[in-house]
Amino acid sequence: MKFGLLFAYQVPPTSGIPSHEPYQDMLACLPRAEEMGYVSAFQASHHIQKDGFCPGPLIAMAGAAAVTKTMRIGTSVLLVALYAPLKLAEDVAVIDNLSNGRFVFGIAPGYVTKEFAAHGVPREERGARFEEAIDLMTKAWTQETFSFDGKFFKVPEAQITPRPVQKPHPPIWYGVSHPAALKRAAQRRCVQIMSPRHGMAELKEHYGIYENAAKAIGYKPPERPIIRQVYVAETTAKAEELAAPAVNYLYRELYGAASAAGDRVLKADDGTVIADTGDVGFQNFKARYIIGNPDLAIQKIKEYERELNPSEMICWMHMPGIRGKDAMRSVELFAKEVMPAFR
Predict the structure, then answer these.
(1) How far apart are CA 50 and CA 44, in angstroms?
(2) Cβ atoms within 10 A of the Cβ of 140, count?
(3) How far is residue 138's CA from residue 85's CA, in Å, rounded to a whole number?
(4) Domain with 23 in it: what CATH number?
(5) Which of 33, 168, 258, 301 keeps 20 to 30 A from 273, CA to CA?
(6) pLDDT tens for residues 20-54?
(7) Where in the sequence is the domain holding 216, given as residue range(s)?
């Protein structure tokens, strides 16, 4: 199994961390992480959040591309329905050139109501806009000149330059969970990237839907990446002391808030649906985190190997409120004590 890193740059309002610091932490981390054997760096994104959750994932990953040489860099995920697709196709082509063909385009339609309201995009159109935008972008990347006449987007005869380095275009990863969207990901022959918000049972259910759809068209997905919140320290008590407040914050302020608002369901480890942010706590989601000492991390990752057989685990260590030096200690300890067990 391979391992990568995920970044979001969230700064909880009471943390006292300046907003620029997590970006500098990422730039300092990645060259060293690349040396230690991490193979990828991915960028999470949301919009109009109070904590600075990254609204500019392509810009951030351009920075990542500049300080790395071999790592894949990518979005996980960019909310396509909020973007003008022709401009997005141009920007993706530029970052693929900047990284010399190392870019992975992880995408999703999005789900947070206030993000759509702020961008003037009807939330009920997000799925259709998302799929039409992908049609437009792939056409722009693969044809010398093209035109497009869709329901939401129209482009007269045009071309984009530069074209992407990767042919026919950068790999597209879907970050979705609805059954219909999972089937579309397979039908488009796109890799499915599994979210950290889902527990093991949900992930197995999602893989089942996706892989049955893939099998029906003769598509064998080349990768099975998953994202997990990860933090390791010398003792489990120390790891939980540093990381429990971070995951509590993340699940309460983003996933739990969205579930309470009816945007997208969040289930606790026992299967109950979160209907109030007060229902969120470190203990009731503990089965999906990998937070502890190296031995515990190895044990939990081996469980993922047995149950899901992921090709890559993208580790979200730089979580909200964790200072860069503390996150870096986890990055280094994980590389030294955990990664060798999976080579």
Answers:
(1) 15
(2) 25
(3) 10
(4) 3.20.20.30
(5) 301
(6) 999 999 999 999 999 999 999 999 999 999 999 99
(7) 2-233+294-342
